[in-house]
Design a protein that fits this description.
A: 354 residues; alpha/beta; 25% strand; elongated; disordered C terminus; B: 287 residues; flat
């Protein structure tokens, strides 16, 4: 059980984390979702006692991380963004050192290290020197380190960043497996990742919680009700025909060299694919491509602000009201997305996994 | 603490640092031994140790530059400071690891007095005494090196800064001889120290009134003492800097005197720098 109350971190004048409160129950897998610089790593660093909070408390299984650090730290395993490994040690040497550090009993070490190496699939490289391992393996060594001593809670900061698509899938599989025995809190800037692994999602931006809720609750409502279509049709005709559809909430039409591209967003909870297809048949448009479009984080923020996400899921209505003032149209967002480096990376990773 | 200690010892020998240190240490001390003892037929091993003190400028940075700088650069400090180990345990573990390696070097070079004893009778107690002084002086300087390593995440910067700091500590006697000795200049010096102290206090507490008032009170007290008894200020500057002179403290050991005061001085010097290291790390985490 982890309780976080009014957690705030200020670096000089910059507020990195602003009055964050949430709790995580035993056995849950919670995803921390937010764009780069949202305050995810800072929050995790405070939760693990690496840095102190300016205000607020972090309580791990009843122990305050700043008041009783040793007891609290014994209950968490932490994988920071950069795996904290020593390049000049072998994998086994390193894990033995971590056992020393976490005061694991000598008699339990051998089997513990063996089991952990198996569970994160590292047994093949256990005698290799860490600096010679690939990024994916190093990430797994970092995860193995977090598992030493079998802490009740695992805190994983962007565990799949920098891995190739195959390794990403493997890492998710490992995390899901770990979630059966541990409470897991992981951070990510990729929506698909947290929705694939987590029971519950907390979305943060600019150091504040934007919204939180169960994965089903969030993803049913905000994922997959947008469809991209490529048609052979004239722009004006298509605009007119699709504009008349009741079930569509918004529509963008762009002209491509050989076709017309439409992105249609359906109303909440409606599957618009059928009506779109029927309309095309009626009007005689040729469908070249039709695929669901996943929402990017920016889209989610906008839909939260526009109120398409259920009110019950919104924790901080104040926040919503504040940001709603800066109105952004759909097409502008699309441009922003393609410019943003982080999102290009995101797109690449998604493609790899489909 | 033992976990960190074991790891540091292993790292010294996994990387080249440990071998470089020991090899260099034994080789240079050996050369001094040849020049001072073997070639001249002098049976006093203390002169070799005293002569080779300058070796510390190079060798202490080799021992300490990596200790904290490398942890922050590789981000392994995130592992250390999120483990159930206190910051004191971490700093002391590293300090004792560096001290152990240094002691190993001294023990290896302990063969030299044995060689000397083959050629005549050496003053065993005096040799032991000077070696003891040599070891605790080295440990005090190691603490300085660790402190500097905790200030940066760049090993080279840590090495150069440690070199500069040790150089100053060794050269301080030469500087103090040049300092003004009059009571008036000492008063100015004391006032400057008070202002610096007040500025540091104000910077730390982000308050102005209290440090300011304290500084004015202390300044007034200093002036009153000056009016009543100016002789108290004579040579104060050189006495102040002389307090930091590590080398002059070694002279007693060299002369064959076991000085408890100097032993306590070296040990407290090491303790103060270990304490400062812990504070620097804690402060960084709390800022």
């Amino acid at each position: 059980m982890i309780e976080i109350k009014n957690l705030t971190k200020k670096f000089g004048r910059i507020t990195a984390v602003d009055n964050l409160s949430f709790s995580v129950n035993d056995g849950e897998i919670v995803g921390f979702l937010g764009p780069n610089g949202a305050g995810k790593s800072t929050t995790m660093n405070m939760m693990t006692g690496f840095i102190s909070s300016t205000e607020g408390t972090v309580i791990i299984d009843g122990y305050d991380i700043l008041e009783e650090p040793e007891k609290a730290k014994r209950r968490i395993g932490y994988l920071p963004e950069t795996p904290p490994v020593y390049g000049d040690m072998t994998v086994t040497e390193y894990l033995e050192f971590v056992c020393d550090l976490k005061k694991v009993k000598k008699s339990e070490r051998g089997t513990m290290i063996g089991d952990i190496l198996d569970s994160v699939r590292l047994s093949d490289v256990k005698n290799r020197i860490i600096k010679n391992l690939s990024k994916g393996y190093r990430q797994r060594v970092g995860l193995a380190q977090a598992l030493i001593g079998y802490p009740g809670t695992l805190i994983l900061d962007e565990p799949t960043v920098g891995l190739d698509p195959g390794q990403v899938l493997e890492m998710r599989e490992v995390i899901r497996e770990l979630g059966k025995k541990h409470t897991v809190i992981l951070s990510s800037h990729i929506l698909q990742e947290v929705s694939a692994v987590c029971d519950r999602i907390i979305i943060i931006n600019n150091g504040r919680i934007v919204t939180s809720g169960s994965t089903e609750g969030l993803s049913d409502k905000i994922v997959g009700n947008r469809v991209m279509l490529q048609l052979k049709a004239s722009a004006s005709e298509a605009q007119k025909a699709f504009g008349g559809l009741e079930c569509i909430r918004s529509l963008t039409v762009t002209k491509k060299s050989d076709c017309l591209e439409l992105v249609a967003e359906g109303r909440e909870g409606e599957d618009i694919r059928e009506s779109l297809s029927r309309l095309c048949m009626e009007k005689g448009f040729v469908i070249l491509l039709m695929k669901p479009v996943d929402m990017s984080l920016e889209d989610i923020f906008i839909s939260v602000i526009n109120g398409s996400v259920d009110e019950a899921l919104i924790n901080e209505s104040e926040e919503t009201a504040e940001t709603a003032e800066s109105e952004t149209t759909e097409s502008e967002t699309a441009e922003e997305v393609s410019e943003d480096g982080a999102d290009t990376e995101e797109a690449y990773e998604d493609d790899g996994n489909i | 603490m033992t976990a960190i200690y074991k790891k540091e010892i292993r790292t010294y020998f996994n990387t080249l640092a440990g071998y470089i240190f020991l090899g260099f240490f034994v080789a240079i001390t050996g050369i001094y031994f040849m020049i001072n003892n073997m070639n001249t037929g002098d049976l006093n091993y203390a002169s070799t140790l005293a002569g080779s003190l300058m070796l510390f400028w190079i060798l202490i940075p080799v021992l300490t530059m990596r200790l904290f700088a490398e942890e922050s650069r590789q981000k392994t400090d995130q592992l250390l400071f999120t483990s159930p180990v206190s910051v004191w345990g971490i700093v002391l573990g590293k300090f004792f690891a560096a001290a152990t390696l240094f002691l190993t070097g001294v023990i290896i070079t302990g063969i030299f007095p044995f060689i000397l004893s083959r050629f005549g009778s050496i003053a065993a107690a005096r040799t032991m005494n000077v070696m003891f002084g040599y070891v605790i002086l080295g440990c005090a300087l190691i603490a300085v090196g660790i402190f500097i390593s905790a200030l940066t995440d760049n090993q080279i910067v840590a090495a150069v800064a440690t070199f500069a700091a040790l150089f100053m500590l060794f050269m301080i006697d030469g500087f103090t001889a040049q300092m003004p000795v009059s009571a008036a200049s000492s008063l100015v010096f004391v006032l400057i120290l008070i202002v610096i102290g007040a500025l540091i206090l104000a910077g730390e507490t982000k308050r102005i009134v209290l440090p300011g008032a304290a500084a004015i009170a202390a300044g007034a007290a200093a002036v009153v003492v000056y009016k009543l008894n100016p002789s108290a200020y004579d040579g104060l500057i050189s006495r102040f800097f002389g307090w930091f002179s590590m080398i002059s403290r070694f002279e007693n050991f060299y002369a064959g005197v076991f000085s408890l005061a100097d032993t306590v001085y070296y040990i407290s010097f090491a303790f103060v720098f270990v304490y400062l290291t812990v504070n620097v790390i804690e402060k960084r985490r709390w800022s």
